[in-house]
């Protein structure tokens, strides 16, 4: 593409060099993070913008997209795209893409690591050693994965990758989703509370958004019970955080392993002060290898679209081909 016919693209915030360097080659890039007045910049460039690249820096909502009459595509960095108003986009002919599959294995690896850390209290054991307490007496015996049933909330691509790993530990697996997943032999529970009552571990891996907000609530946690462990590698919004903190405080459940939180990067002090939980700073897919693959897929979606071939991974709510309405 020549400079004269490069499509105009908004970067909603800083992104990895791989994305920014290729974007500069393919597009006329407008970086909102460098704007002294973001609204003024948007007003000035609005008539020319055909694409947005975002990583959830701030909501790409209907109000923003409506200001951009030539907008055709929103490329999202990450498999979750709850910061983009896909309903508005779908109704107005704007395609939204995400970066599925390339992060499945990394997130599943992290999930199993978080599960084992939580069940076996491995971070607590390391802190115990570093504090010199092993010199005084052995670390207390921990709980085990051996006598547990794992219930997976969500059986999409990542859920299946998690299930394969859990299965290799010889642990029974069941799952909850709106409808049974094709090609899956694990027992399906249409009712989340019923599944929580029958398992000892809940692993949450569903998309964020209004449809799943606070689905892990006080009722679900009570059903999980005093031997229960919650692992959340989905979105912080999926769990009713105050209800979870109360359940942990009152020993309604045994423990939790959390990679995501309601208001990241802010984590409630009450959780930080709890010794019986394991907390990670949203590192599910955070390896150099996987983030490079995610970044390249975002660029490949934009490149394919710009060439007229259509995006590679449009989300279900905004199928391709589409036409701006």
Write up this protein:
This protein is of the alpha/beta class and 325 residues long. The chain folds into 2 domains: 118 residues, 3-Layer(aba) Sandwich (Rossmann fold), CATH 3.40.50; 176 residues, NAD(P)-binding Rossmann-like Domain (Rossmann fold, 3-Layer(aba) Sandwich), CATH 3.40.50.720. Helix content is 35%, strand content 14%. The chain is built from 12 helices and 12 strands. The strands form 2 sheets. It has a 7-stranded parallel beta sheet with strand order 8-7-6-9-10-11-12, with helices on both faces. α1 runs parallel beside α12, α5 crosses α7 and α8 packs parallel to α9. The mean pLDDT is 96.
Question: What brief labels describe this structure?
Answer:
five-stranded parallel sheet, seven-stranded parallel sheet, 12 helices, 325 residues, elongated, Rossmann fold
List the helices and strands and how they pair.
Layout: E1 8-11, H1 17-26, E2 28-31, H2 38-45, E3 49-54, H3 62-66, E4 73-76, H4 86-91, E5 95-97, H5 104-120, H6 122-130, E6 150-153, H7 157-168, E7 173-176, E8 187-189, H8 192-198, E9 201-204, H9 218-224, E10 229-232, H10 241-249, E11 255-258, H11 269-272, E12 277-279, H12 288-306
Parallel strand pairs: 1-2, 1-3, 3-4, 4-5, 6-7, 6-9, 7-8, 9-10, 10-11, 11-12
Helix pairs in contact: 1-12, 5-7, 8-9
């Amino acid at each position: 593409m020549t400079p004269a016919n490069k499509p105009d693209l908004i970067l909603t915030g800083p992104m990895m060099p791989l994305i920014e360097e290729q974007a500069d080659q393919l597009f006329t890039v407008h970086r909102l993070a460098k704007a002294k007045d973001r609204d003024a910049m948007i007003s000035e460039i609005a008539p020319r913008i055909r694409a947005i690249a975002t990583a959830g820096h701030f909501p790409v909502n209907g109000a923003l997209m409506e200001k951009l009459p030539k907008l055709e595509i929103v490329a999202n960095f990450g498999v979750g795209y709850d910061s983009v108003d896909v309903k508005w986009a779908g109704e107005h002919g704007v395609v939204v893409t995400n970066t599925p599959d390339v992060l499945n294995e990394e997130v599943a690896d992290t999930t199993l690591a978080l599960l084992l850390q939580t069940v076996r209290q491995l971070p607590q054991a390391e802190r115990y050693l570093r504090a010199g307490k092993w010199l005084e007496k052995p670390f207390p015996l921990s709980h085990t994965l051996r006598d547990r049933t794992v219930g997976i909330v969500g059986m999409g691509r990542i859920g299946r990758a998690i299930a394969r790993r859990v299965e290799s530990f010889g642990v029974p697996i069941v799952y909850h989703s709106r409808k049974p997943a094709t090609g899956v032999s694990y027992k399906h529970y249409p009712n989340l509370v019923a599944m929580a009552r029958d398992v000892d571990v809940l692993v949450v891996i569903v998309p964020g958004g209004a449809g799943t907000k606070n689905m892990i609530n006080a009722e679900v946690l009570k059903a999980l019970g005093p031997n229960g462990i919650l692992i959340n590698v989905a979105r912080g919004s999926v769990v009713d955080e105050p209800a979870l903190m109360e359940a942990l405080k009152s020993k309604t459940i045994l423990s939790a392993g959390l990679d995501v939180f309601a208001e990241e990067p802010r984590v409630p002090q009450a959780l930080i002060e709890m010794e019986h939980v394991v907390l990670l700073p949203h590192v599910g897919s955070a390896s150099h290898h996987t983030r490079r693959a995610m970044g390249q897929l975002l660029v490949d979606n934009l490149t394919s679209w710009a060439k007229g071939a259509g995006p590679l991974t449009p989300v279900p709510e905004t199928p391709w081909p589409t036409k701006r309405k």
